[in-house]
Amino acid sequence: MAAANVLDRAFVAAERWLDAPFGAGANPLRNLGTLAFFLFWVLAATGIYLFIYFDTSVEGAYASIEALTQKQWWAGGLLRSVHRYAADAFVAASLLHLLREWAAGRFRRFRRFSWISGVPLLWLMYASGIVGYWLVWDARAQISALATAEWFDAIGLTAEPMARNFLGAESVGDRLFSLFVFLHIGMPLALLAGMWIHVQRIGQPKTVAPRGLVAAALAMLLVAALLRPAVSQAPWDPLHLPPTIELDWFLLFMHPLMAATSPAFLWLLAGGATLLLVALPLLFAGPKPLPAVVDPANCNGCARCTVDCPYQAVLLIPAPNVRTGRQVEIMAERCAACGLCAGACPSSTPFRSTEALAAGIDMPDCDVQHQRMRLEAALARIAPAAAGRIMVFACSEAAQAATLEDARTAVLDMRCIGMLPPSFIEYALRSGADGALLVACRAGECVYRLGAELTAQRLAGERQPILRKSVPRERLRMVEQAAGEETALRAACDALRGALAAMGPAPLPRPKREAMARDRAGGHG
Amino acid sequence: MARPPAAALLRGLLAWGAFGALIVVLSHAPSVAPVPAGTALLQVSIAHAGVRLAPCRRLSAEELAARAPNMRAPEICPRGRSPVRVTVELDGRTLVDETLAPSGLARDGTSTLYRRIPISAGERQLTVRVVDDLRVPARGYARRARFVLVPGQVLSIDFKPARGGIVFS
Predict the structure, then answer these.
(1) Most-buried pick from A37, A305, A386, B55 (CB within 10 A)?
(2) Which of A41, A52, A91 is closest to A75 using CA atoms?
(3) Residue A246 near chain B (CB below 8 Å)
C-alpha cells in the first residue's frame, strides 16, 4: 500500500493548498462526494430542460438537438453544454472521490458498507452517461452504441447479436429511442437511489454543497460551455463513417480501449476492477477497533450519541423495561471506536461525586473514570506553578501536543477531540488550570469526520452537551493543527498563556469533590 | 470567515480553471478514427436458422395411443437444425470461413455471425456463400459482386431468404 501512502500525501498537500482560497468547507478536494451530488442535480435540472425539446424518433432525435443547439444557443445550447460538462465533471469528481478514500484507507471495517455500496454506482454512472450520448444519434452515437452492443455480444447474452440492432436503417426504429430515453432516465434514478444508500452509514452526510462550492462549480461549467459549446458530430449514417470522431474520454474511453484489445479483455478489466474494489475491505481489513459499550443503568435514551455518531453505529431501540422507554445499542461492526458518543453522553461528566464514574455509553479502554483520573493527575503536575497553567486537551491524530508539556502545561490526549465532554474543560478550570487549549485535527482532516465540528458546536452552545455559559470563554482556545504543525501549536499555546497573564486565576468555584480530587492529586490545590 | 487575500483567490481561480480545462479538453480530444485511414468497413452480420435435420412426420395410430391423451399431437418435428457455413472472399482471398452452430441447448436456434473487417478502399470483388444444410453442401446460396469502395464506406453483408438470400447494403 505504498502507492496509497504516496497518493494520500499528494492529496493532503493539494487539499491544504486549496484551503487558503476556499476554506475547508468549500474546498473541492475536501468535498468530492458532495461535489458529485451537486453535479448530479445539475445534470438532472439541465436534462429535464433538454428532454422537453427532445424528439424521441429516428428522424427527429438528431434534428431536435441540432435545433436546440443552434436556434436557442443562449438557453438550450448552453444547457446542453453544461449537461455534457457536468457529466464529465461528475465522472472526474467520483473517480477522484474513490481514489481519495482509497488513499486515506477509508474503506476498512466501519467504512466497508459505504465503500462497497459505491462500487455499483460506477457502473450506473458510466451506463447513464454512455446512453446519453446515444440520444444525440450522431456518428459518435453510432460508434458507441455498436461498440457497446459488441461488448455485450462477447458474453452471449442474446441469441442474436445485439449489434445487429444498430447496423442498418431498417433495424433502427422509433421504439429504440423510447428505450434509450427510458434507460437515460431510469439509470440515473437508480444511480440516485444508490447514492442515497451509499451515505446511509454516514452520520450527518454532507450531500448539500456549500454555497462557495456551488458558485465555483457553476461558474466553471458555464465558462466551459461558453468557451467550447458541445456540438453533435455528423448525423448517424449506417453506410458511412467519418474519418475521425471527437471522443469524450471521461465516458467513452472504453470503446477505443476495446478496439485496441478485445471485448474479452475489457470484460476482464471491468470485472476484475469491480471484484478488486469489492474485495479490498476484506483483503485489507486492518485492526479491529474496540467498540463502545452501553451501560443500561446509566443510559436515559436521550439519543445524543445516536445523532452524533459519525458512522451510524449507535441505534435507538425500544426498551419497555426502562423508564424512558428507549435505549441505545451499539452495532459493533460499524463502530470506529472514536469516542464521539462518549463525548455526547450527558452522564459522561467528571463532576459526579461518586467514587467510580460510569457513563451511559463509553469506551471500554478509556472510560470516563479513567479520563478523570488522567485529568486529575495531569492537573496535579502543573499545580505548583504560580500562574499561566494550561490544560491541553489534544486529539492524538493532530499536532503532537506532548511537545508542549512543561511545568505549566499538562496534556491529556485522546483518540478524537470529539471524545471530550465539555464538562471536562470546566472541571479543569475549576481544578487549578488557568486556561484550556483544545487541539483538533486540521479543518476537514478529522479522521472520524465530525470530531472538531461537533466540539466547536458544543463549545459554542449550539449542540448538546454544551459548555456551560459560566465558563469564561476567554480562557479557552481551540486550534486545528495537523501532525507536523507543532510550531504553530506552540505559538497558539504561548498566545493563550500571554492572554491568561492579564486575567489571573480562573474565577470558578472548586468542584464539590475537591477534597477527593486533592487527595488523588497529592494534597495541593 | 475573513475574505481570502488576492493570492489565495488567484490560487482558487487557477484550480477551478485547471479542472475546467481538463474537463473541456478530455471531453473532445484526442479524436479517434473509426476505421484506419484509406480503409472501408466490411460488416458481416448473419442470423439464420439452418434447415431441420429431420423432417416433421405424422405419428402412427400405435404411437398416438401410447401417449397421454393430452399429448396426442398428430405430427412431431425433431428440433435439431443444421449448422450454417458462411464464407466470404475478397478478391479471391478468404476473409471468413466459419461453420456456425445453432444456438440453444437443443441446437434448434439461429446460427449467428457478426464480424467487422476493415478493408482497403478501391475496387473490390466480393464472393459470399451461405450453406444452411451441411448435409447437402452444394445446395447453398452464393453471390458475387464488384464494388468501388471509398474510405469510410460501410458495406454490410446479411442473409435474408425472404429477399433472395445474400443481401449487400
Answers:
(1) A305
(2) A52
(3) yes
- CATH number, domain containing residue A103: 1.20.810.10
Assign A320 a pLDDT band (cuts: 50, 70, 90).
confident
- Going B148 to B151 to B157 to B162, the CA torsion angle's sign is negative
Q: Same domain, yes or no, for A327 and A304? A: yes
In A72-173, which residue ranges form alpha helices assigned H by DSSP? 78-103, 112-136, 139-153
Q: Is B73 on the interface with A (CB under 8 A)?
A: no
| A161, A239, A248: residue with CB nearest B112 | A161
Confidence tier at A193 by pLDDT (50, 70, 90): very high
Q: Which of B4, B32, B154 sits opposite A21 (nearest CB)?
A: B4
CA of B93 vs chain A CAs: smallest distance (Å)? 24
Residues A16 and A160 in one domain: yes
Given CB atoms, is B148 within the 8 Å cutoff of chain A? no
**Selection from A35-44, A163-172, A493-502, B76-85 with the highest mean pLDDT:** A35-44
With a threshold of 0.90, tell me whether the complex ipTM lies above it: no
Chain B contact for A160, CB < 8 A? Answer: yes
Comparing alpha-carbon positions, the chain A residue that sits nearest to B6 is: A21
At A514 the pLDDT is 58
Residue A288: inside a domain? no
Binary contact (B20, A220; C-beta < 8 A): yes
Q: Is residue A213 part of a domain?
A: yes
Other CB atoms within 10 Å distance of the CB of residue A470: 9
Does A231 reach chain B within 8 Å, measured CB to CB? no
Residues A362 and A251 in one domain: no
B15·A143 Cβ contact <8 A: no
- Expressed as residue numbers, the domain containing A117 is 2-239+247-283
To test the contact with chain A by mutation, choose from B9, B31, B32 the residue with the greatest count of A C-beta atoms within 10 A, namely: B32
Top-confidence range, A155-159, A380-384, A493-497, A518-522: A493-497
Three-class SS of residue B120? strand
Q: How far is A117 from chain B (nearest CA, A)?
A: 26
**CB-CB under 8 Å, B151 with A228:** no
User: Considering CB atoms only, which of A92, A161, A250 is closest to B114?
Assistant: A161
Name the 3-class secondary structure at B148: strand
Domain final residue, candidates A264, A283, A302 = A283
- Whether A456 and A434 map to the same domain: the answer is yes
How is residue A488 written as a grid cell? 504553530
User: How many domains, chain A?
Assistant: 2
Same domain, A335 and A479: yes
- For A220-266, give the DSSP string: HHHHHHHHS-----SBP-TTB--S-B---TTTSTHHHHHHHS-HHHH
- Which pLDDT score is estimated for A261? 96
Which of A283, A308, A339 is the endpoint of a domain? A283
Q: Calculate how close chain B gets to A273, using CA atoms only, in Å.
A: 22
Q: Give me the sheet containing B122-131, strands edge to edge.
A: B93-100, B84-90, B122-131, B141-149
Q: Does B38 touch chain A (CB under 8 A)?
A: no
pLDDT in tens, chain B (169 residues): 566 678 888 999 999 999 999 999 999 989 999 999 999 999 999 999 888 888 888 999 999 999 999 988 999 888 899 999 999 999 989 999 999 999 888 888 899 999 999 999 999 999 999 998 888 877 888 999 999 999 999 999 999 888 888 888 8
Whether A494 and A474 map to the same domain: the answer is yes
- How close, in Å, is residue B132 to chain A by CA atoms? 17
Q: In this complex, do A85 and B27 lie within 8 Å of one another by their Cβ atoms?
A: yes
A164–B47 C-beta distance less than 8 A: yes
Of A368, A364, A358, A340, nearest to A297 by C-alpha is: A358
State whether B11 and A249 contact (CB < 8 Å).
no
